Amino acid sequence: MNTHTLPAAVETYFAVIDGDAREKAIDSFAADPHVTDDGSTYRGRDEVLSWLTGAASEWETTSTRLSVNTEGQVITVATRIVGSFPGGQVDLRQEFVLDDEGLIQRLMIAV
Description:
By secondary structure, the protein is α+β, with helices and mostly antiparallel strands. Helix content is 18%, strand content 46%. The protein contains 2 helices and 6 strands, in the order αββαββββ. Strands 2-1-6-5-4-3 form a 6-stranded mixed sheet. The mean pLDDT is 91.
């Protein structure tokens, strides 16, 4: 199904990921999450929190949703990221897998 409506955890993630309090996104993640971004995988809440306050916070960014596709507990969001990083713009595919409680169990970010 193609829609721009997102589950609460994913909506919260996007609401804070471009701001100054990216660490608050950890509240959207399950007890034992996995994040894969830029060739690195972060496992567990401590590593994901480290990613949120480190690599994910390295640049100022603004995200625009281009499309959303939901199939069961898998939500794929195509986003355009504009920011202070080299090149200044990139389109990403972010695949969220939710647990039974609707929290982010896995996030895979790819170009």
